[in-house]
Amino acid sequence: MPETIVSDLEGSLLKEPDPFSYLMLVAFEASGVLRFAFLLLVWPLGRVLDMVGLGDVGLRLMVFVAMAGIRESEIEAVARAVLPKFYMDDLDMEAWRVFSSYGRKVVVTKSPRVLVEWFAKEHLRADDVVGGELVVNRFGLATGFFADHGCSTDERVRKLFCGESPDVGQGRLPCCSSVQSLCKEHLYAPFSDGKAYDLPLSKPPPVIFHDGRLVRRPTPSTALLILLWLPLGALLAAIRILVGLLLPIQAIPHIVNLFGGSIIFKGTPPPPNSGILFVCTHRTLMDPVVLSVVLGRRVAAVTYSISRLSEILSPIPTVRLSRDRRVDGERIKQALSEGDLVVCPEGTTCREPFLLRFSALFAELTDRIVPVGMNYRVGFFHATTARGYKAMDPIFFFMNPRPVYEVTFLNQLPEELTCSGGKSAHDVANHVQRILASTLGFECTSLTRKDKYRVLAGNDGTVPDSKDYGGRILKLVDTLIQH
Fold it and tell me: How far is the C-alpha of 473 from the C-alpha of 247, rounded, in Å?
């Protein structure tokens, strides 16, 4: 089989030939709703330009609107943390199987290279990515223009191969790029037809860590629907939060359906105030609150890095950990001596169907462990992000038309499977992770909180700036009082 392949991204490896929806994601996540709305207004003009044969001009216009004035670091963060999930959902698996079977692999994209490179190299295993280079000014802001390197995309591909022609070009008619003309052989979709490729059934590395607010890829129709829903969603969120804060927690399960929500629970919860440690999977910041609603009592929750404002607004007691193992152990023991407690040993949320490695600390502190599987479904907005304004997380959750939570109580661990039964704390933590993953249909991983932030932010695993203005205000008030 030939050794080198050049493939178009849009319309070939991806089913969608138009990069517009990915530019919409950059506009929303890196800038905000106003730019998101303005880009949607520009979209019809881009379509008209494309229909009259000026598609390249239309694309450049939309890139300018989507990125002009945004910091390059913000664009790179969105490319790492948000876009891969949507690219993966749009991936043509047959095209990828063919692409992945070659030795040297090159991806050609209409989009700015910075948007595609992380996904192409980490998940498609591409060796090189050829696309437009954004011009960035001396302040680190994208100008929205493509750099003119004095050579076309075709010439840049030829330079990658030292003037030689790539063996195979992969595309989809009629939208394949002119790069295909450089190749010795051409493959066009559908890739499962024609030649009999005897290729193993394989999958690209999955996207485990995903950030950003939007649940759906914002195609023009979806983007319009989101914009129309935002004012009503904000009003609905305010009503839901106010009702939840004012009513007794025992009444919430009976009225949640009246406000468009739904809580589904399975299994039998233990009796109250028995010193039980509920060990939960961590999907959103709402996990302990929803668990308390199902139990009909306010159960204290261990928190790691939520904003001070979120703690103040929380309808349940919170126990803030310091990440000092000795100090945290004492705080958890003290909380358990006063009643039940909720802990999420993954240490951070994970949206995809994977469980991060469980910290073993909980298993060292008690043998009264009840595993609880938490999961949620939303239509428009994710409830938790690693970047952005942490205090907005519950608001975005309640802005969804019909947020649904699923709570599954498992049986309390028998003594022989706890530390009292001779098991190590790590064995107990791994066992709880496995049974929860099996219950939810998830996969276990050995990845940690640091791995998440290393992937999403490209840093050393430290928590990125959460923009916790509520916490900053509280610190300022404390300082004024002290002086």
Answer: 28
**Measuring CA to CA, which residue among 314, 321, 318 is closest to residue 362?**
321
* Alpha carbon distance 278, 288 (integer Å): 9
Q: How distant, in Å, are the alpha carbons of 300, 301, 303 from that of 338?
A: 10, 12, 17
Any idea where the domains of the chain sit in the sequence?
A: 4-188, 228-482
- pLDDT of 134 higher than 90: yes
Evaluate whether 69 touches 144 at the Cβ level (below 8 Å): yes
Q: Is 152 helix (H, G, I), strand (E, B) or coil?
A: coil
Overall residue count recorded for the chain in this entry: 483
C-beta of residue 280 within 8 angstroms of C-beta of residue 435: no
pLDDT tens-digit map of 137-156: 999 999 999 987 667 777 88
* Token pair belonging to 404: 């649904």
416 is written with which tokens? 């022989």
CATH number of the domain at 4-188, out of 3.40.50.1000, 2.60.40.10, 3.30.360.10, 3.50.50.60? 3.40.50.1000
Q: Are 258 and 320 in contact (CB under 8 A)?
A: no
399 burial (CB, 10 Å; 0-12 / 13-18 / 19+) is buried
pLDDT band, residue 479 (cuts 50/70/90): very low
| Distance in angstroms (rounded) separating the CA atoms of residues 103 and 4 | 6
Is the preceding peptide bond at 174 cis, omega within 30 degrees of 0? yes
**Residue 179 or residue 88, greater confidence:** 88
pLDDT digits (tens, 9 = 90+) for 289-327: 999 999 999 999 988 766 666 677 778 888 888 778 888
Instruction: Tell me the pLDDT tens digit for each residue of 190-239.
Output: 765 444 455 666 789 999 999 989 999 999 999 999 999 999 999 999 99
Helical (H) or strand (E) element with 236: helix 220-246
